[in-house]
Amino acid sequence: MKRSKRTNQLAAVRKLGTVAMATVEAARENAAVRVEEARTKALQSVTKLERAFETRVTRAMSRLGVPTTREVRALAREVAQLKASVQRLARSRARA
Question: CA–CA separation, 58 vs 80, rounded Å?
């Protein structure tokens, strides 16, 4: 009978260990999901803050009269076109 009692105790300990391991694994998975959710929310918040900051900086620069990137590029294209025109005129005058 002692052997049967001991076997039952061992079985109970094993079962308890299995349940404990399953609980730990479930808690770990739950924590991983929560960490990922928190990371996603933090990333969304940072992105939102960056957009707001960029918008405010753009408005402030506009009020100060600082040209936008688009305006600078358009101006650079125009300068390149004017430079090409001047070079063509200089060559045609040199031939004449």
Answer: 27
Are 22 and 50 in a shared domain?
yes
pTM for the whole thing?
0.53
- Please answer whether residues 62 and 68 qualify as being in contact, where contact means their C-beta atoms are separated by less than 8 angstroms: yes
pLDDT tens, position by position, 26-83? 999 999 999 999 999 999 999 999 999 999 999 999 999 999 999 999 999 999 999 9
18 and 35 fall within a common domain: yes
Provide the residue range defining the domain that includes 73.
68-96
Indicate if 54 and 80 belong to the same structural domain.
Answer: no
The tokens for 45 are 């918040």
Q: Determine the Cα–Cα distance for residues 20 and 28; give it in Å rounded to an integer.
A: 12
